[in-house]
Amino acid sequence: MEGMEASFSIVGMWQSMTWLGRSVVIVLALMSVWSLTIAIERLWRFLKAKQESLTVALGVTPLLKQHSLEEALRFTKDLRFRHSHLARVLSAGLTELQYETSQGLPEDFDVVESGKRAIERETLMTTAEMRKGLGNLATISTTAPFVGLFGTVVGIINAFRGMAISGSGGLGAVSAGIAEALATTALGLFVAIPAVWMYNYFLNRVERFQVEMSNASSQLIDYFIKNRARARARAR
Q1: Cβ neighbours of residue 59 under 8 Å, at least 6 residues apart?
Q2: 41 and 133 Cβ atoms separated by less than 8 Å
Q3: pLDDT tens-digit profile of 141-180?
Q4: Are 202 and 42 in contact (CB under 8 A)?
């Protein structure tokens, strides 16, 4: 019994594995570490984005109400908010509005459309940056079970090889191979399931950030339109 218990321990199963089975375990372990690293980095990144964007929203609103465009632009470009998705979008739009004001562009120049294009470009770039690493999580979540399945096939082959070597079909002849097969299957699922959860969670967060950027962009465009109307009214 003691020998059987030792053979089914982690060390015992590792020692009984073939080099191909060990390679599968190493690959799955690396995939697990990779997905965990991505998850930690994205959690920190999204937490900073949420905190900084809240500060930006509370700070830039009164500046826009006072029509302090230069101060609002400097505020959104502050390095304290380099992780904020709202700061990047608002900065892109305010830059267009401030450029029109400072350069004295022709009256037929449509600052609203120019601002929209600038905001859309920045939104796309910000969204792409926020999706960084999510493709890797999706890849890990879909391929880890298949890597584990490959290890399962290797383990079954090892079980039949043990049966052929011993010349009998007893449990002792196939136990090592079956243990290897089940261990790699379980490890593949252990790697894939958290990766799926994390991928869906982060994807939902990105979609939420997109909604926030869309709302902020819409409000800024409304400000553009009102500001343009006031400028034309003063010109008359």
Answers
A1: 75
A2: yes
A3: 999 999 988 888 877 877 777 666 665 555 555 666 677 7
A4: yes
Q: DSSP per residue over the chain, as a string?
A: -HHHHHHTSHHHHHHHS-HHHHHHHHHHHHHHHHHHHHHHHHHHHHHHHHHHHHHHHHHHHHHHHTT-HHHHHHHHT-GGGTT-HHHHHHHHHHHHHHHHHHHT--TT--HHHHHHHHHHHHHHHHHHHHTTTHHHHHHHHHHHHHHHHHHHHHHHHHHHHHHHHHTS--HHHHHHHHHHHHHHHHHHHHHHHHHHHHHHHHHHHHHHHHHHHHHHHHHHHHHHHHHHHHHHHHH-
pTM metric for this prediction: 0.79
User: Which pair of structure tokens corresponds to residue 35?
Assistant: 């997905």
Amino acid at 43: L
